[in-house]
Write a structure and sequence with these properties.
This protein is α+β, with helices and mostly antiparallel strands. Helices cover about 25% and strands about 45% of the residues. It has two helices and ten strands, in the order ααββββββββββ. It has helices at about 1-25, 30-45, and strands at about 50-55, 65-70, 75-85, 90-95, 100-105, 110-115, 120-125, 130-140, 145-150, 155. A hairpin with a 5-residue loop joins strand 3 (about 75-85) and strand 4. The model is unreliable at about 55-60 (pLDDT under 50).
């Protein structure tokens, strides 16, 4: 009995599918449009604009290489200054233009936290060189909390 019900349902669905294909056919480029729309949505959710502001040798008496990076999602901007330490690690100094409640630097299974200081300043000392991502919880102009996440960058 179940096999007959299944066959009858399958035939009904096939007729409905043919009817809708005749009445309202799927646009030929719908699949491509959907793939592009999902990719753009994912990109805009995770991606923040990364700009290499400057890369130079450190202070006059130092051979330490430094980099300055800027991230922005159109609402919040973060400026990072990366420099080497005597111990072989990296120091990350940062500034955020929004009210930050939590600031974390994440590398695989390691994590550093920083407290936002005056004028949005924060710092991480002796960070292991490697690929990292900055994650913040910020309060926007309306008082709503939201996550800000940078793309991965080399520390």
């Amino acid at each position: 009995m179940e096999t007959e019900d299944f066959a009858a349902d399958a035939a009904l669905f096939a007729r409905m599918r043919r009817m809708w294909e005749d009445v309202d056919p799927m646009p030929a480029d719908l699949v491509d449009q959907m793939v592009a729309a999902v990719a753009v949505e994912d990109l805009s959710r995770e991606y923040a604009l990364l700009t290499l502001v400057e890369e130079a040798l450190g202070a006059v008496r130092s051979e330490t290489e430094t980099s300055t990076l800027q991230f922005s999602d159109g609402t919040t901007s973060v400026l990072l200054h990366l420099s080497g330490t005597e111990g072989g690690g990296r120091r990350v100094d940062g500034w955020v233009d929004a009210s930050a409640l939590a600031i974390r630097l994440v590398q695989d299974d390691r994590e550093w936290t920083a407290e936002p200081g005056e004028h949005g300043r924060f710092a991480f000392e002796e960070v292991t060189p490697g690929v990292a991502r900055l994650r913040l919880v910020v309060k926007d102009a309306t008082g709503e909390l939201r996550d800000f996440q940078t793309p991965q960058f080399e520390v």
